[in-house]
Amino acid sequence: MVGHLRLSPFFLALTLAGAVATACGSDDNNTVFDGGDEGSTLDATFDGTNGPETGFGFETGGQDGTVEAAGLDVEPSALQTLTVPLGQTSPTQSYQALYDNQPAPAGWVVDRGDLASVQPGPSSTTVVTPTGTTGGLVTLTAGLNNQTVQRQIMIKLTASQNGENTNVPSEVTQTATQVSDLTAGGGVGGVGGEGLGVPVTDSTTLNALNNPSSNGSAQNLVFLYPYDATVFPRGLLAPLIQWDWSIGDADAILMSLTTTSGSFSWTGTFGPPQILTQTNGKFIRMPVPQDIWDAATNSAGGPTQNNQPDRLTLSLVVAKNGQGYGPITQTYTVAPGRLDGIIYYNSYGTQLAQNYTGAVGGNGKFGGAVLSIHVGDTAPQLVAGSSGGTAQCRVCHSVAAKGSMLTAQHGDSYSTTSAYTIGTNTTTEATLVHNATFPGIYPDGSMALTEQALLLPLPTDTTPITTTGLTAMGTDLGTPAFSPDGKLAAVNPMTGTTTVTAPGKQLFVLGFDGKSAFSNPTLVVDDTGKAAGIQPGWPAFFPDGNSLVFHHQSVVGSDGTSGEMYTRKGCQAQIHWTSTTSASDVTVLNELNGLNGQNTSYLPSIASPPSMTCTADGVSVGGIDAAHSNDINYNYEPTVNPVPSGGYVWVVFTSRRRYGSVATIPPFCSDPRGVNLITNITTKKLWVAAIDLNAKPGSDASHPAFYLPAQEILAGNSRGFWVLDPCRANGTGCTSGDQCCNGYCEQADPDAGAPDGGDGGAGLVCQNQPPNATCSPDGDACQQNSDCCNTNDVCSGGFCVQGPPN
């Protein structure tokens, strides 16, 4: 989400003189522009592509300089292109306003303050100055005497480097200085690997990189990670680029990132990371420099002159013994939105809380705990659990969508549950009277629906809430979940009733009144009659409540227990989705699971798998798919970010797939008691995939997934919940309404003083109503699409968000 870029008083005075207009999203006659880093056009009052809304009585100017009514003109009229080095603010572009062919004092504004700034006037001339941080198409609007004219500037950001840039703090943090850095927390840069490489000075190697003698096909040069066609959000830690080839090592690489429109281009030349001289490892992976990834993703995905998607292409050339190979390329879509919030997840084997003994590696200790990752962190934080004995273990958690409440089970007594009230700076624990294993927590954290069909008030659950309508679902609800708006609940009952005709094989959606009454059970997944072990579970609603994703188990575990929705013991599953109204809409999310449009796996297997055996829960799993040839069937436990972003819904799920060359041991080797997880990195990790906003089950609307940065790299991680940050009170600084308890983030009263805390931009603070109580800008609360100022927005998950991209 982004803040709000408001027009200068000069611009308004000159443009709106003599006109009476009440702008949607305005405040004290300051018309709201939706700018910032999401690449949005102007909202309610102006559209940055098509000119001002004619309903305000303005005479509009076209992109070609034609003014429909004589008067205001701006020169130059043609699209201007500025090629700007990254971090620089020149060259600039000058404009002149003419009224009846004479210089005239106009007001000036740009639609994207992340790309450029402009001198507001009133003045007959102005200068557009690039920020030097983001490339793309920026629209300049001039206004005078009820007329406006728009002109466009294409900013092309360029950069190159040879080796790590030690003047950039984010690149310094991507460099390992000691071997222990490689496995601490989330790994180097939060993604693993050895960090950035050194400069290349050898002229023969440089020539080989710039003039490759082979395209690399004979050497089987391929990317291992990321995956081609992945959809990435903005604001993510830079990915670890991993490659494979028959030569097996490299002397240097040439990496480049370019956008389709030319809004960004970068080349980087790197030798092996310095730490490899200590580990004697091969040069087979390296992250994109963080500052470069930020600039590239902030530039990609924005509007273009021809309205074609501005995608991001990665190119790689590798050199060995004076020969260059490649380039190989991949192209990604960048969603014009940032992912905010916190991810809470189970960690089995964490080093942050050691409460079990018997580990094969290290000091023989490991822990079970709930950890969290705040978006942008490079390592997780401990939330629930601590070091000591098994009584300090806390796992098997659930979290409220609004981030205020978490529950977790006790390791020494699985029938004991604790509730954690989560604040902005504090977390308090209370032991519940009733068992609440994997409950569905109501979005605001006020109550929880348990698998035992109890509706418990939180955090004090002495007396369960008397309910109606649940008896039709039996006494074991499986893994219940609430929709983000609290109006629906999903259950997969494990006991039979007149409604539940195939226990464990059916998934139902019920209406909920927000108090105690459940109604209208609707069958949405039906595996009746299918083989043992084939069953649905772990449902999670999309933000709009119209569909949900779920874990569809296809193969039962090696212990033969068919009723358990395991992620271990050899259980196999894929992520499916369905509507909340019909069982005929069930659709497998192939792209998320690992199949491309040709129904072929794009997940890399291992040609010569390691000879390794391990045990897990007393079951030998050493013979299960050591080559990772079946990774498409190791996807489990999906949950959904309650607020969509950049035109996509974001699903986080557990997977045992190979993570490039970082995590390659057999997929079910994840128990510290059965394999050394200090010297071997388990593949049981969290991944995230985008699904097209407003798509409907019936066809696959998912995209290839990406590894979730910052999760503890040495541990087996699962059951991620992506939830909102604990909400902020009125008057607290903010950047979007989804951070606020009342849902609105707006311009502060200038007489009220500075915002109290937070990261408010341009004086934005949490409030209890939209600007002038009219309509909601991007990120503010809504109940329906018409509540949103921007006609391109949709109301999803209770907030106005940008609609699907091109």
How would you characterize the overall build of this protein?
By secondary structure, this protein is mainly beta. Strands 5, 7, 10, 13, 14, 16, 18, 19, 21 and 22 form a ten-stranded mixed sheet that branches. Strand 24 (356-357) and strand 25 form a beta hairpin. The longest helix has 10 residues, at 290-299. Residues 1-10, 16-69 and 752-761 have low confidence and may be disordered.
Gist?
This protein is mostly beta strands and 806 residues long. The chain is built from 6 helices and 52 strands.
List strands and helices in order, with pairings.
Elements: E1 5-6, H1 9-16, E2 32-33, E3 46-47, E4 51-52, E5 59-60, E6 72-75, E7 80-85, E8 93-99, E9 102-103, E10 107-110, E11 116-118, E12 125-130, E13 136-144, E14 147-162, H2 169-172, H3 203-210, E15 222-225, E16 231-234, E17 240-244, E18 252-259, E19 264-270, H4 276-279, E20 285-287, H5 290-299, E21 312-320, E22 323-338, E23 342-350, E24 356-357, E25 365-374, E26 381-384, E27 394-399, E28 405-410, E29 417-422, E30 427-431, E31 440-441, E32 447-449, E33 455-457, E34 481-482, E35 488-491, E36 506-512, E37 518-526, E38 535-541, E39 547-555, E40 572-579, E41 587-588, H6 590-593, E42 615-616, E43 619-620, E44 635-640, E45 648-655, E46 685-692, E47 706-707, E48 716-723, E49 744-747, E50 764-767, E51 793-796, E52 799-802
Parallel strand pairs: 5-14, 7-14, 14-19, 16-22
Antiparallel strand pairs: 1-2, 3-4, 6-8, 8-9, 8-12, 10-13, 11-12, 13-14, 15-17, 17-20, 18-19, 18-21, 21-22, 23-25, 23-48, 24-25, 25-26, 27-28, 28-29, 29-30, 31-32, 32-33, 34-35, 35-36, 36-37, 38-39, 39-40, 40-41, 42-43, 44-45, 45-46, 46-47, 49-50, 51-52
